[in-house]
Request: fold
Amino acid sequence: MDLLVGQLFTGLSTGSILLLAALGLSLTFGQMGVVNMAHGEFIMAGCYTAYVVQQVVGDAGASLLIALPVGFAVGGAMGLVLETVLIRRLYHRPLDTLLVTFGVGLILQQVARDVFGAPAVNVSVPEALRGGVDLLGVTVPKTRLFIMALAVLAVTAVSLVLRFTPAGRRIRAVVGNRDLAETAGISSRRVDAGPFFIGSGLAGVAGVALTLIGSTSPTTGQSYLVDAFLVVVAGGLGRIKGAVVAAVALGALQAVFETYSTASLAKVGVFIVIVVFLQLRPQGLFTLRTRSLA
Amino acid sequence: ACGSKAGEETAAVESCVDTSGDTVKVGSLNSLSGTMAISETTVRDSIALAVKEINAAGGVQGKTIEIVAEDGASEPTVFAEKAEKLIREDCVAAVFGGWTSASRKAMLPVFEDNDSLLYYPVQYEGLEASENIFYTGATTNQQIIPALDYLAETGVESIYLVGSDYVFPRTANAIINAYAEAHGIEVLGEDYVTLGSTEFSTIVTQVKSAGADAVFNTLNGDSNVAFFREYANVGLTAEEMPVMSVSIAEEEVGGIGVENIEGQLAAWNYYQTVDSPANGSFVEAFKAEYGADRVTSDPMEAAYTSVYLWAATVEKAGSFAVADVQEAADGVSFDAPEGTVVIDGDNHHVSKTARIGEINADGLLYTVWESEGPIEPDPFLEGYDWAADLAVTE
Amino acid sequence: MKFFTTRAGTWTGFGAAALVLFGLAPLLLSGFRLGLLAQFLCYAIVAVGIGLAWGRGGMLTLGQGVFFGMGAYLMAMHLKMADAEFRGGPGAVPDFMELAGIRELPAYWAPFASPAFTIAAILVLPTAFAVLLGLAVFKRRVKGAYFAILSQALAGAFAILLIGQQSLGGFNGLSRFRYFFGYNLDDPVNQQMLYFIVAGVLLAVVAVSLQLRRSRYGELLVAVRDAEERVRFLGYDAANVKVVAYAVAALFASVAGAVFVPIVGIISPASIGIVPSIMFILGVAIGGRASLVGPVVGALAVAWAQTALSEQFPSAWTYAQGLMFILVIALLPGGIASTAAVLKRIPTKRATVEATT
Amino acid sequence: MSIALSCKNIEVSFDGFKAVAGVDLDLSRGEVHFLIGPNGAGKTTLVDAITGLAAYTGSVVKDGEELRGRKVHHIARRGIGRTFQTATVFENLTVAQNLDIAAGAGRSPWTLLRRRRHLPQNVVDTMERIGLADRADTPAGVLAHGQKQWLEIGMLLVGDADVLLLDEPIAGMGHDERETTGRLLHDIAVDRAVAVVEHDMDFMRAFASRVTVLHAGAVLATGSVDEVSGDPRVQEVYLGTAKESADAATA
Amino acid sequence: MLRLRDLACGYGRTPVVHGIDLHIGPDEVVAVMGHNGAGKTTLLRAVAGLLPAMRGTVELDGTDMTRRPANRRVKAGMAYVPQGQQCFAHLTAGENLRLVADGRRHGKALIDAQLDLFPALRPLLGRQAGLLSGGQRQQLAIARALITEPRLLILDEPTEGIQPNVVAEIESTVVGLAKRGGLSVLLVEQHLGFALQAADRYYVLRSGRVASEGSTGVEAEGRVREAMSI
Ligand SMILES: Nc1ncnc2c1ncn2[C@@H]1O[C@H](COP(=O)(O)OP(=O)(O)OP(=O)(O)O)[C@@H](O)[C@H]1O
Ligand SMILES: Nc1ncnc2c1ncn2[C@@H]1O[C@H](COP(=O)(O)OP(=O)(O)OP(=O)(O)O)[C@@H](O)[C@H]1O
Ligand SMILES: NC(N)=O
Ligand SMILES: [Mg+2]
Ligand SMILES: [Mg+2]
Reply:
């Protein structure tokens, strides 16, 4: 019983972390088709934002609450700059965005190294989030509960915006067909900036939250990137619902594999499961079909 | 036009080290980019400090030491490439650096084939001895075995092993398993995570439910942060289940957050708090050079020491030539910050004092136990019966 | 440019390349630099394959490190076996195994004592793996960014898998090779021979790629890249068309890995994971993915720039490297190979028919 | 006149919605068979089903062989070729290369791996026939809409398809081009079965040998041009004589 | 209303349309005809703002639009229905319409008006546009354009792929809107009959140049045929 509950919780928790890291990607990659390899560095920027805010504010609790919106703004601003300066030229060459943003990521890592030093820095966990609560016989760290709640909040907000607001419709329209959107009176320039801002901002938020459980160092973002991309792919491009299910499934899978083999082999196992899964659902869990041949 | 075949002698490579001028070049080869930069940049700094001090005191053999710095980029192949470049193009007299065993293994043939010298400053898994490498960090009998002895002495009867998935932790754990078997300690679990992994939910849950007396931690780098945070958050404490770490030094404590790790144990040969005149001046000089907020740690000290050991050996040999340095090395000693260290001419390791440290609220480690004097290096664990099955002499 | 597409032009091009590689380079470069060039040529061989799979076939293979690594490990296993045999007679275990406490040679190592088996394995195993994986993926029409991410994850998983294999050297990988098919590796003369071998392999690989591009298959591959579904309606199995290019790219990468090992002296998971795989791609993108020599030039340029920059600015070269990727790819969509074309049409905005990526 | 392709009781449904609801259709060699019907009647879907793009129940038989469940490229190899409502050609390849590829589905690997020395005769002839001989080396991407459609038809011809399913092949063509295309279709149909989906009634009247009208996924009428155009039901749902009938055009 | 002066445009460096002068008066319907590849679509894309002008100007009601991006031309009163039944495939048909109605004062009413015009669309509103049939998509595209309440409607072969009775419907709608006032139409059409019937004036393009222009009275058909068939 304990083991099962523990597993379940670990899966959910790992999943929510993955989801937080992947949610921004499901906008920038899933919706806009931009393979942003610097997304990990945006997460890292969120981590350092939390660090800086804590240095300034002092109190860990207050600084966490302040850092969340600030992290969103920092990540978002970085995304906006990236979009305006580089990505904008590359919408018709989606795979090239991968290479360019990889270069951006390298530079951001080095910037972090030069500004904050190569060793990791510490962001203290607020008193209120230290320790755990006992749920059905397992100890659940409060930090993880907090991250789960944050993930749920972020997902809900993003999907409501995309689904039901005019802005969301416009985003989906521009993503689908830029020229046509232009002729429908939508400024694709302005709309492009939107999801990129939100997606990158979410990376910043993820970064702030991840300081609660992980380290803050120039290479921090890297460890989340590949898994986050896998979540988006397995979930079906651009499908928030898919990303949620995929994140939790991958998290649970990882937890189960880890219990019965080693953590390293678990990664391999997860990869194999994804390849097999794509045999069944080549376009991911949830997909949008069209009749075009493209 | 084919060269020599297996079994035939290859003509010796000519060394291009130029000692006719009033400077001598040495290489400093560390990862300044990539995942290992987090640790290795600090080593670069202490090498530079030692060189600066030696130069200020008149250099070696009257010559000023000039550093040629290279980036190993956290990739073994780059280490090999840069080592060869330092030897063949820059004609350095010796190279200081390397961190991961993979980087050392990659450089080893380069130094052997070109007959040059590497000073390697990091604690490692032992089972190696090359004519062309001087190992100034701890080998296992100077770190891991004393740590196990300490745990056994404090009444630990069961341990849980957690490590990063690479050679050092795996070898270390093999040794720990053998030790445990011989000393009646129960190993309740052994888990490895990918280097850099930050997901410890499952492992910490397993550690907790296993209920060992102590955890032996061979995790490296960022993973430690996630591990200790998770550890603290599920309510595990140093009193209840202490963690003995062998890769957490002063630098790492800062990143983990002292509130998460206070009271936990580490095994090294050196802490910033070691009370000795030599260390007093080392710490002071380092802070003066790089800032008061910087800390000093074991690998930094070993790297710093290695430059002095090289200089002392050259002075003793009266020559920069590799053969002369190798010849003169045995018995060369230096009054290092950690205490006196002496080069063992047979295995090219140095004698070192083992210390168990406890992490205090100020983020520094304080010695709670130390060996009686320096321990002789025994990289192949020939002096331990229970380790007979572990290793073979080269 | 037109000239080089003629038969005479082709021979001239190859002649000139051979002259530079076999004549000029050994004459001008020191032993160390020649060794470095040999290493870069290995990357160039991988790049030629990527140029085919990605530039022509539209498959962004972010996981070439896997095939490169397979070739490299297969060769390294042979070299370690040869070494063990030389030191300890038949059946001796390689030195690193002794250190890891492995006393008994794992069964799967034994055949690698044979040079013939090793070479066959280098040619067949990665290619076969690519065919299987390709069929699994392409038959299900996984493509575009999906395929890219998937192949990237593959590289990551493969590296992790290797790290866990103590009988393959784990994280340290395999190193300390002394002999290459009976020749001492520390002899400069033999090192130069290795360089010539790599240079020869590169020319051969370029020739194969050229033939493939000019053949009907090459046209078909472009057709699949541009309108895969349409090709099916003409009666072709588009997946098979892609698998061929993917497998050829894998084969090239494997061969490159195999020659890389004796040159560099080590293969470890660090050389085959996600980042090295992206580096392979970057060379191709920077050189020009769609052209024949672009990938070669790009791979050499990136590797050379990397070395030169890091020698000059050991602690700040990442900036220069990052900038290089950004500028070249953002400003020169066709890579270095398109410089001339770009200069010519600076006044206008967009290419007429853009190569789809 | 022989039956080249025979469809029995074809049904295609999408999430419960029946786009094609039990269609029987025979295509004969020597005929240009027009498929007409309101927008959304299921014409394209029917073609999709026959060519293996949409899953269906029922049966499609060509030369005694059941095609249901076969892969797209197998069906194409059985001699069934189609064009798309929006022309899809290989934009980065030249007209000649497009045709050469279309001509070569059966080539051996060995042939494929060699360089094309000269164009196959049927490719040269076809280029002449579709009026693109002088654009042989033009990348197909820069052809005008109508030219792309001819190229698409040409690609079916060189591929030896003997059942051609053309989805709105003259969309966007001018009057003269329509004429040309119509004659081309008739020419082609001499020894092949040609099915044309079209909304241009003048074109249909001029060139149809036979007409089938689909409505709401089912066959509403079938017969000669006159029979069909005279059918009041067809007039009501499709041809229309006045405004009012538009309301009934909902699929 | 619309005035093009010496407008040239094309792809890459090669112009396809070489200096066209064209004007449309208020409430006027003007048809542009020409062979495949004559440059009709290219011209319309330049007017709509999807292709940069290489030379010349585009004016709407006396305001220079040449440098304005496409979306701002829509706000100025242009609506463009591109060739080829284009729609936002991943949005439902309803969302396709709401997308353009968003932010307009009587958005809902505008949508309703279009649905009255194209009743076939009503039952399809919840279906993904990418799954609609060709003709359904074309109707959706025209409806979408009309929701922007344009003063100038640009249609590229609007009847392509539409069933005959609906073609008649569209024709009368377009003409009706123009007649009612407030809407000018620039129409590219292959269907000679339809074009001449709907339009007040015509232009024939040949190789990117105006080969003939005039009003669509009697004898127009002959002149057009002649201009086109040379
Ligand atoms: N994949 C699908 N999922 C759901 N509905 C579909 C799908 N494909 C087609 N439909 C619906 O099936 C019906 C038939 O579509 P089809 O394209 O066959 O019509 P058509 O007769 O070709 O019309 P048109 O003349 O306008 O091209 C339409 O209502 C369409 O919306
Ligand atoms: N994207 C493009 N790149 C280069 N050339 C193009 C492109 N699109 C069209 N062209 C060329 O421009 C010319 C005019 O094409 P356009 O599409 O304007 O013709 P059209 O008059 O609309 O023909 P249709 O009646 O077939 O639609 C054609 O010769 C075509 O080859
Ligand atoms: N030698 C080590 N710690 O890798
Ligand atoms: Mg249709
Ligand atoms: Mg057109």
